[in-house]
Amino acid sequence: MSFRYPAVLKLFLIAAWISFAVACRNKAEVKRYPMTGTVVAVHQDSQTVTVRNDNMPGFMPPMDMDYRLQNTQSLAALKSGDKIKGTIVVQQPNPIQLDDVTIVGR
């Protein structure tokens, strides 16, 4: 019977290692980037907003991009032409989202 104990221990360690590897792989890192920009369009039907972001050195040049808002209630307050600041949230495999949106000018 003593010859089976190491085999069982090996199987347990392999199963634990696989479980750990899968858990680490599924735990996506969340990255947050401060952003300023101008609202180009608000899409109530898809609950998204198109924003022309200002230059974000090391992350993103100025461009128009659609974002889902983490707080969809703030979508109602946004209008085309609003100057905003917020936080871009990147967490794979989710689409890029916008959080902490504040209107800083019209």
Topology:
Layout: H1 4-26, E1 31-43, E2 48-53, E3 63-69, E4 83-90, E5 97-105
From the spread of the alpha carbons, the general shape counts as elongated
CA distance, first residue to last residue: 78 Å
The Rg value, from CA coordinates, equals: 22 Å
SS class: alpha+beta
- Main beta sheet: strand number and arrangement? 5 strands, mixed, barrel
Q: CATH homologous superfamily - what is it?
A: Copper binding periplasmic protein CusF
| Percentage of residues in DSSP E strands | 35-45%
Order of strands in the sheet with the most strands? 1-2-3-5-4
Compute the number of helices. 1
The ordered string of helix (H) and strand (E) elements is HEEEEE
User: Which architecture does the CATH hierarchy give at level 2?
Assistant: Beta Barrel
At the first level of CATH, what is the class?
Mainly Beta
Oligomer: single chain
Q: What is the total number of structural domains? A: 1
> For the residues shown, what is the average pLDDT?
84
Report the helical percentage. 10-25%
* Number of DSSP strand runs: 5
Which stretches of 5+ consecutive residues score pLDDT under 50?
none
CATH topology: OB fold (Dihydrolipoamide Acetyltransferase, E2P)
